[in-house]
């Protein structure tokens, strides 16, 4: 069973119990794309068994109530791409196998990755979010794997005795979006702030003194102005680096 309601700007909210009793069987997909939805209310999917929920394209959707999925089950795919959602309900994270949040620029912070216990695929907006999944390996070791007679069974070993389960995540990190901090050592982070502030203040004072004086601008003074201006630009550059490191640290 597929529920499809698209391109309806008059739909501004998904109310409580919106789909309760709609179908006795689990719903394969609820497609609410490109509507005017602004909010998903608490208990909106109460009593609804669904596999996939698509909220893509609701650009004004800014709030999904933490209790929106209370009483719901079976959800494995969630698509909140091209929305203004800034957080995801914790109640559904454990069952998701695929999360799609492309062009969801307000979703700047994801829940702890440990809550995505079954996630296999994530298509996100920011490459930094994928860094959290890169080195995440969920232990899937079955207690009976310690029994030699069961470990010798290839099918059982492949399913239950693997050391970890990886997650496929996009966009991938690259040279311009690295997973590592720009400056990891704390002393280096403190030092760059000290150097940048001193460079800004010192060279700004030099320029004010040289350009504000009434004496004739000689060649040596002109060269000193150039040198002070260059050092001032370097100070600005260091401030930019330190600021970006502070905002992206961790």
From TrEMBL:
InterPro entries: GPCR_Rhodpsn, GPCR_Rhodpsn_7TM, Gphrmn_rcpt_fam, Leu-rich_rpt, LRR_dom_sf. One of its GO terms (molecular function) is G protein-coupled peptide receptor activity. One of its GO terms (biological process) is male gonad development. Keywords: Cell membrane, G-protein coupled receptor, Leucine-rich repeat, Membrane, Receptor, Repeat, Transducer, Transmembrane, Transmembrane helix. It is found in: Cell membrane. Residues 202-250 form the G-protein coupled receptors family 1 profile domain. It is a multi-pass membrane protein. The keyword Cell membrane applies. Gene3D superfamilies: Rhodopsin 7-helix transmembrane proteins, Ribonuclease Inhibitor. Pfam families: LRR_8 (PF13855). The chain crosses the membrane at residues 190-211, 223-244. GO terms for cellular component: plasma membrane. This is FSH receptor.
